[in-house]
Model the fold of this input.
Amino acid sequence: MVIQMDNMIPSIPKRIGAIKFGLISPREVRKMSVTSIITADTYDDDGYPIDMGLMDLRLGVIDPGLKCKSCGSRAGECPGHFGHIELVAPVIHVGFNKTIRKILRSVCCKCSSLMLEDSKKRDYLEQLSKYKDMGHLPDDVINDVFKEARKPKVCPYCGEAQLDIKFEKPSEYIEDGHKLTPTEIRDRFENISDDDIRVMGMNPDTARPEWMILTVLPVPPVTVRPSITLESGQRSEDDLTHKLVDIIRINQRFQENRDAGAPQLIIEDLWELLQYHVTTYFDNEVSGVPPARHRSGRPLKTLTQRLKGKEGRFRGSLSGKRVNFSARTVVSPDPNLSINEVGVPFEIAKHMTIPVRVISRNLELMKEYVRRGKKVHPGANYVIREDGRRIKVTDINTEELLEKLEPGWTVERQLQDGDIVLFNRQPSLHKMSIMAHRIKVLPGKTFKLNPAVCPPYNADFDGDEMNMHVLQTEESRAEASILMQVQENILSPRFGGPIIGGIHDHISGLFLLTRNENFISKNDALELLRKSELRELPEPAGHLEDGAPYWNGKQIFSQILPKGLYVDFPAQVCFKCDVCKKADCEYDAYVVIEDGELLQGTIDEQSIGAFKGLVLDKVVKEFGAAAGAKFVDDFTRLAIRGVMYTGLSFGISDEDIPRNAKVEIAARLKDAEEEVSKLISAYEAKELEPLPGRTLAETIEMRIMQTLGKARDDTGRIADNQLGLENSAVIMARSGARGSILNLTQMAACVGQQAVRGERIRRGYAGRTLPHFYKGDLAADAHGFVKASYKSGLNPTEYFFHAIGGREGLVDTAVRTSQSGYLQRRLVNALQDLEVQYDRSVRETRGVIVQFKYGEDGIDSTKSDYSKPEAIHRVVRAVTGKEVA
Amino acid sequence: MSKFSLLDHELIPNHEIMDDDELRTVLKHFNVEREQLPKIKVTDPIAQEIDAMPGDVVKITRKSQTAGEALYYRYVME
Done:
């Protein structure tokens, strides 16, 4: 940084005292302008910018080599300077149409005074100053002013009768059939007194209303609208330049025609054309104005379009921009990685770097990196000299660099195992959407991650892509590893439980392993625990007849539990009996862990699942984040081996149910249909008793829905009774690994009623859903009841209704995500500056208090037990063994 | 029509005007000026009920499931 010292402005921290917004006056435009622009041509035949053209060298330079005629600096240093165009006739600024209309209506057409009594004006002024003192927006008062001032039919000052002023899009003001020209409007505004302007909430020094009618147009510097040179050597101008050319052309034609004394009609046409071009120059998406187009037919991107929307200046370039040191690729699972790790492809690791300062103690190591260069993996891509110059490491200059490398230089070395990076999946909805991982460089082309961290990212492996950001400073790495590492985020502040945990196969794996008494030989036991750091097996549970020792699944699982862990709770498979027998549960559905040993119960979602896992919750809260991470790593590995040990597969034959059950289901559905037809005949005979607050038609619909819903549930129960806990689908549904009993019912027994907006399907033809039903038929099959199961197959009518119901779900999710996304955006924008202070108060940036104690109770929900303020009870119980009130 | 007190409603927490001593300790505790407190309008029904004047600070005692009682302070303004 030594070189730049001489022309560097020393950076003094400055504080912005105030920002003032106003209108720019024609005088100001001329004052800041370095030249008037009079010709529409840009370059002469030699490609040199024409004087007083749009590329005039006084407006700044973008071509390297040229010097700015205004400030003398080169391209890159010159900030650019404004020019101006003298408009032959005034035109309206589109952005102010609303204000112009309001002022026009509340100001006398003859004497230009604001049509309010003097006393009222004083009242409003007082109110305005009061609002200003309180820091409130004056909008309400100003709207009141305009509302009151447009009421009088006769001017209270000069007695002139006021005519109605109609506004027509895009920018025409019609007073009683006569079109007001911008000149006329400007004349009226010019005569408004300063005092009246203040009553309208404007400051006459910085914003006079007539400045909303343009007489001179500022021309932005070329640096704002740089032209690009195409490969063919041809120049391509910026959209703004194109638009300005149009404005100048029309302006000239207008001048020529008026000087030549052209008829009024032609003048008016040209005036309108000038208005059009100036309008589209400011905003090319004004309703009622056809957008100005490029020759290719693409609409031009003018001033408003540059600022507006997601890719506009504010949201696209200032609030967020593209970053270096990041990578993106598809993610895939690797259960052998720790949850704190991420697998990074070699290809990526070789491109991404971490700067390391060379000191005497790492000189040799750094030299080795440089020697390896960029091609051999842990190498270096760049070195940075002491003076800040970056030098690429190439085959040619390696030797030279090795010689020169000395303490004070910086080596940008490639990523290697153990480096800490940030990992992110969009949409980043909560803090767990960006977490810090340690790198493991692996072959392949995808990022690898432990499937247990899928829930916080909401990731799956159907083609999801994720981003990685490499931290560049020591401080950021320290901060990330302390605050953002995965293990520090196992517990979610959303509900005070683990958001990271077992999913799918982890749950079925441990469920299969820990349920029942199973006999596991020494070989199998060691195989199961192979990936955990275990050196000894516990005492065997017993010996087989031939004397060989055996263990059971509960013992195996206990090996990965930390010593000193005590928990008990009902498992997911719990049948919710009226009286819980707790440890004596005959279904083995009550988990008891004592001193890190699973004594009773089956491990399922309630123990280790993401969101629910109580064992995991307890481990993290009592043994710390590192122990929690180790537990997750261990049980994911054990679970994967566990599920492979027993095997878990699901096929179409798993949905088979015996013939008699099928008959039973068919009979139950037939009963339901009969019930429905009875209801219908009762309805038609007007014997049906309406439900309170419902019409008869609503009542019958509800009753039918009820009947059919119950029938579907009953068929499900019939099917369920045939499928025991040996069935893979039942195992998955009961343990909470995947799917539900309802899914199973639909596959094996009956799909049930298809609904649109919670009602039976009614749309289609007049009075019927499909042409082969009778009009007004209320029967189950005519309104989307699907009797078939997915396995038996749907008939065409059922299939069609099913498609209708399915489509609604898709539309719903699409709508919901966009709506909740916007809601979230607004919330985040409103809350982003609030901060919890060390005294636990919540304050905004000015120091104004929002909450005197965070959440009014000062509870950190992350450390509470599922958001209940009972963590203290847990601690006291653990220490004293006694309950506290 | 008999006059009723807004404070009797169970959904309305207790509001009271703070005396200077208490206010001073609170402001000192949080190291703030009165103006940096959250605000309440004099025209607010509850402010009128307790005859609060602009410049006063109202102490609000809310019931909380988690904290028992939560205190909140509001600066009365026009």
Summary: The longest helix of chain A spans residues 796-831.
